[in-house]
Amino acid sequence: MSAVCHQHHRLLLRWRCALLAGAMLLLAVAAAQAATATFTVVDQHGVPLEQAVITLASPAIAAEKPAAVTHLMDQAGKRFVPDVIAINKGDSIRFPNSDDIRHHVYSFSVPLTFELPLYSGEPENPVRFREAGTVVVGCNIHDRMKGYIYIVDGARHAVTVKGMATFADLPAETLTLTIYHPQAASDPALTVQIKAGELANLRPYQIELKTNAEPNTAAMSELEKKFQLLRHGAHQDMHHQ
Prior knowledge:
This protein is an alpha+beta fold. It has 2 domains: 35-62 and 159-241, Carboxypeptidase-like, regulatory domain (Immunoglobulin-like, Sandwich); 65-153, Cupredoxins -  blue copper proteins (Immunoglobulin-like), CATH 2.60.40.420. Helix content is 22%, strand content 34%. The chain contains 3 helices and 17 strands. A 5-stranded mixed beta sheet has the order 6-12-11-8-9, with no helix packed on it. The chain has a 4-stranded antiparallel beta sheet with strand order 13-2-15-16. The chain is globular, with a radius of gyration of 26 Å. The termini are far apart.
């Protein structure tokens, strides 16, 4: 083999080694910039808390622009299923009625006041939620039916299962963690800051949340008070007939 061939072979090996080193460096940088964290939410008795909504916010997450999605909140067994859901601002929800009785869905919450008058099956159009916040939905016919919709703006979100929720590909920057729960004493229930270097030590990160025996019910709006009075009057008229 000539000296020219030897030199060409050495150059090719150096190029391959440099390319491999560059790829490994990119992988290392990506691993350093993205992290996975698991959070466990427990109540004041140490019991894992179901249906806690966890959100994580940061500048990088706020820059994400997820496409709008249509979700499902069914009505079955005189319950909303699921009765706790987290969605992005701009998402929509379908409210089918899988019961063999009719329901009348409504909400007086500030982010969106709406109603779906007495119906079976499924309304023609889903309901779109254009403002962030908490929306509580009920049924005008069945008072015990309650559903909780948490509309999130510019944050990742998850609902706990067996008290746990996992987030992947988190950016290496300070995160704002917020928790919501129907039985929490306040809305939101808790907000904490997690510094970038702390993510690697979360295995998992456990959070204690004080809850009430019953879901938290905020003071009724003037519109809701009027609605309740009208409904109460209608019930009395029916009894007098």
